[in-house]
Amino acid sequence: MLALSLFLIVIRETTVIFSITFLIILLLNIFNYKVILLGISLFTILFLSWNITFWILAGHQNLKIGGDFEIVKVYSHSFIIKYNNINVLIKMFKHHYKVGNIIYVSGKISMIEKITSFNKSVNVFLEIHKPFIKFISNNENTNYFHTRPFPSNIFLNLILFSKKIPESKEVNELLNQLNISHFFVISGFHFSILFFILNFMLKKIKFTKNISEAITL
Prior knowledge:
The protein has about 220 residues and is an alpha+beta fold. Helices cover about 50% and strands about 20% of the residues.
């Protein structure tokens, strides 16, 4: 209950700032009905989203879980997994885990009592205190390309998965300085282009339509 109250206080601080700003805007546009309607709609949406978020997090309080999870973020003394698509923090003073590792986790979820700017920045308000953890495996795709020789492992992860591995720090800085880092962000648009090119080439060398589409998958 204390943790839920603290979370509500954090949300309430944001709500107070937003409410004051919202009120000022309405007062400055008191005769503009379009702005008034837009402001009321925006306030309603944000108010509902805050309450829904609160009740979702509250529903996980003291929830016992057990299962295999993938580590999505790693820090010096903690890491984050996702449960029901919600970030859950696990604190460990010493650990050797990496992003993509699959681990078995068993424990009780609770609200983080002291919510800091770090928690807000990574959007994590739940934690598992002293869980049972067992290493299961590496993420197969990430592990295979991660073990390739330098610098192939860096560029394969960047190009194929847009994933920055620890060893890629210097390369990432160089790409940013050259202003070409965006070339290594693969989107659905890029994959569509690759599909059409490969499909076109296969048709030109007399592959049937079904076979060529199967290969490009």
